[in-house]
Amino acid sequence: MFFYQTLSDKQITSLQKLTLPDAEVYFAPQFFSLEESDAFFQELDQRINWQQEHIRMFGKKLPMPRLTAWYGDKGYTYSGLYNAPQPWLPVLLELKERVEQASGKSYNSVLLNFYRSGNDSMGWHSDDEAELGEEPAIASLSFGGERRFGLKHRTRKDLKPVSITLTHGSLLLMQGPTQHHWLHHIPKTKRPVQPRINLTFRNVRG
Ligand SMILES: O=C(O)CCC(=O)C(=O)O
Ligand SMILES: [Fe+2]
């Protein structure tokens, strides 16, 4: 476990390190206060240019099971789709500063996901695109309804899959060898859940 200071209130908050082999994952369930988190959810809900993108699968064009948006300095290819960057918004720069301060890393882009209901999801993947470099640091913020975040090792079947509840106002940080060895997903849920906004800050090269 290590400690950091938030910029706003100089309050010491802890990022908990998960005990996962072949990974470096940290989690802070209440990185933001409830008041801040409610305000960020509203702001992002209203200001982000949310898009319904499609994926091509088996020659079919299918709607992605969530809305997405891409902001920052660089374009990015994700799930075979090229995402042209939209210029930073003030709210995104504020969040970027906060996660940079906490993680000691810098980011030049952010992918946003909007999960409208428990029927929205993200399939098993790792964020291992070449543009992200060898051992990418990815800082993931969650606002709104709680969803389960699953992690499973690519090859070691003796390791049980891990599941974390991504709370309103939480920060999840993945770095080091994590993307090489582990896959992650957001499964659908039958539980009634509030809409959820996720932001993953990344550093894209090139
Ligand atoms: O919604 C989440 O927490 C996961 C997002 C994610 O894995 C991604 O955008 O690559
Ligand atoms: Fe991911």
Keywords:
disordered N terminus, 206 residues, 4-stranded antiparallel sheet, alpha+beta, 8-stranded antiparallel sheet, binds fe (ii) ion, 16 strands, Jelly Rolls, binds 2-oxoglutaric acid
What does this entry look like structurally?
2-oxoglutarate binds at residues 113, 115, 125, 184, 196, 200, 202. It holds the Pfam family 2OG-FeII_Oxy_2. One of its GO terms (molecular function) is broad specificity oxidative DNA demethylase activity. With 206 residues, this protein is an alpha+beta fold. It has a single domain, classed as Jelly Rolls. Helices cover 16% and strands 40% of the residues. The chain has helices at 34-47, 90-103, 178-181; strands at 2-5, 12-17, 24-28, 54-57, 60-63, 67-72, 76-78, 81-83, 109-115, 122-125, 138-144, 147-153, 162-166, 170-175, 182-186, 196-202. The strands form four sheets. It has an eight-stranded antiparallel β-sheet with strand order 1-2-3-14-11-16-9-6. It has a four-stranded antiparallel β-sheet with strand order 10-15-12-13. A two-stranded antiparallel ribbon has the order 4-5. The longest helix has 14 residues, at 34-47. It is globular and about 45 Å long. It starts with a strand and ends with a strand. Residues 1-12 have low confidence and may be disordered.
